[in-house]
Specification:
With about 550 residues, the protein is of the alpha/beta class. About 30% of the residues lie in helices and about 25% in strands. The strands form five sheets. The chain has a nine-stranded mixed beta sheet, with helices on both faces.
Length: about 550
């Protein structure tokens, strides 16, 4: 018979993160570039008070435990208050990706059953486009004061400051089950409609704790962290939670993500750690090179979403003296699942070999396990060269998609859809993807959805979309069309047609008209043949 330890069993909760930050690091700052006006400064203690006012305001609306509250917002201080006030009070925080096409955005709001949606004023046109299609949303609240709240025809808009102002800053956070839902994020990394991943309080807390570890991002109260990765994208890799746990100063860039704005903010606030997708860092380095700038405090950056070119890693390390930590994760893994780093026995390696190592996706963080399998599900060797589908399991990995009856797992492991290798010492490298989805600038594009939209054109007989390597965006969609007999089509006509049906950044960079597409015995287009023929069209 097992001998159990005699220890307390306290739940891991988002509200506990906030209370810890307010109690231990109450004067630490969150500096936020707001949609309107100058930089906004607020302390952890003040965020805790305002989050409680928000919790009371939401309770006044009559929301029940487990009700879903949406956000369409940038990285800013009010969004942080939503993170804590919503989840801490027993509701579910649903961060919506404003880059989705309005139809998809309305779909996820309806599927999640959002009852309240908070939004930044920037997205007022988006609210106008979707509000009439979101019948379950009872309240639309702009994250601003009254003076900066836009008018939206046909939609009753409240402003955030007036919404929380009448309410008390005293609120008793409920002692929830740590496995209850805290936040909801939808992935577009699959074909068809986005799928929801409902994160538990436990998963968020453990993932945030892991981000603080030395082999991950080494976050402490001595650091100043600027997450460029959006708060609507996998909860900004859990950094708004990790910084409050560690007591690190948090700097939020708002809507200005260009190289000049990021550099100015980094220097003004003495940022030491940042995190984002490679395209962001390309723009930042281009600005630095153009103006002969250097970083005075930046020491390391986390990179994920897509592969970072080795040349850019070398430039960060050798020229700008910034360590790059290359990671991997997905919506289904809550945040960071692996991270590259240089071990003590690798410190003496030639610099180029170190860059090669950092360019890989790295070792799994504690709490996450990896393996690769063949098509029959057999585990493959960790030899650094054998390729297989990457499988993952752990403390903060999805088990079921939101509202799905069938498990997402295969024999207890989550199939990522990535093809990878794992070295004998555990270093994982993504080699390819099993699904025909395209990852552009860290965001997913469904080739099947693009094809379906194209085929809706009356002059299109067949269409195929492939992801093609791109020097800036990692991948961009290439569209190949077989026109119907005796029908003429122009490239711009096709792009204009698609622009009305998909998100702007989904529209292919190039359209090629062909007489036929290679088709296999089962009638499927042989996309591998197309990749071989057109795979270098954007890099030649």
């Amino acid at each position: 018979m097992a001998l159990y330890g005699k220890m307390m069993d306290r739940p891991l909760l988002v509200s506990a993160i906030l209370e810890h930050g307010a109690d231990q690091f109450g004067q630490q700052e969150i500096v936020s570039r707001e949609t309107h006006g100058p930089l906004h400064r607020i302390t952890f203690a003040e965020v805790a008070q305002r989050s409680k006012k928000l919790a009371n305001a939401l309770a006044k609306l009559g929301l029940k435990p487990g009700s879903v509250v949406g956000s369409i917002a940038w990285n800013n201080a009010r969004h942080v208050e939503l993170y804590y006030g919503v989840s801490g009070s027993g509701l579910v925080m649903h961060t919506c990706n404003p880059r989705l096409h309005p139809e998809q955005l309305a779909y996820i709001i309806n599927h999640a059953e959002d009852e309240v949606v908070f939004f930044d004023s920037t997205f007022a046109p988006l609210i106008k486009a979707i509000a009439s299609h979101c019948s379950k949303v009872k309240h639309w609240i702009c994250l601003s004061d009254q003076a900066n709240t836009p008018q939206v025809d046909g939609v009753v808009i409240q402003n955030y400051e007036d919404f929380i102002a009448p309410h008390s800053a005293v609120f008793a956070w409920p002692e929830l089950d740590e496995k209850s839902g805290a936040a909801l994020c939808y992935t577009s990394g699959t074909t068809g409609n986005p799928k929801g991943v409902l994160y538990s309080h436990r998963a968020i807390t453990l993932s945030a704790l892991s981000a603080c570890l030395p082999n991950v991002l080494t976050i402490s109260s001595q650091e100043t962290v600027l997450p460029v990765v959006p708060m609507f994208h996998i909860n900004a890799w859990c950094l708004p939670y990790a910084c409050v746990i560690a007591g690190a100063k948090l700097v939020l860039p708002g809507p200005k993500l260009d190289g000049a704005s990021l550099y100015e903010l980094m220097e003004a606030e003495k940022v030491t750690i940042s995190a984002g997708v490679p395209t962001i860092w390309m723009g930042l380095i281009a600005h630095c090179e153009q103006h002969n700038l250097r970083f005075s405090t930046m020491r390391r950056t986390g990179v994920g979403g897509s592969a970072m070119p080795k040349a850019l890693i070398a430039k960060f390390n050798d020229v700008y003296k910034v360590d790059v930590h290359h990671g991997w994760g997905m919506t289904e893994t809550t945040a960071i699942a692996t991270m590259s780093n240089i071990s003590n026995h690798e410190m003496d390696w030639p610099v180029e070999e170190q860059h090669n190592l950092v360019a890989k996706q790295g070792k799994s963080v504690f709490g996450v396990e990896l393996k690769i399998v063949d098509e029959e599900g057999n585990t493959l060797p960790r030899d650094g060269s054998t390729q297989g589908e990457l499988m993952v399991r752990g403390q903060w990995i999805v088990e079921h998609y939101h509202k799905a009856e069938k498990t997402a797992l295969v024999n207890g492991w989550f199939p990522t859809g990535d093809i990878a290798t794992i070295s004998p010492d555990g270093v994982m490298q993504i080699r390819d993807r099993t699904k025909d989805v395209i990852k552009s600038g860290g965001e997913w594009i469904s080739s099947i959805d693009l094809e379906n939209a194209t085929i809706a054109h009356p002059h299109v007989a067949m269409a195929a979309v492939i992801g093609v390597k791109h020097p800036k965006w990692d991948e961009r969609p290439l569209l190949l069309i077989v026109p119907k007999p005796e029908k003429s089509l122009e490239k711009q006509e096709v792009m204009d047609f698609l622009a009305e049906r998909v998100a702007k950044w989904w529209v292919p960079d190039e359209v090629i008209f062909v007489e036929s597409l290679p088709v296999g015995g089962t009638g499927k287009v042989q996309k591998n043949d197309l990749r071989v023929k057109y795979g270098s069209i954007f890099t030649e």
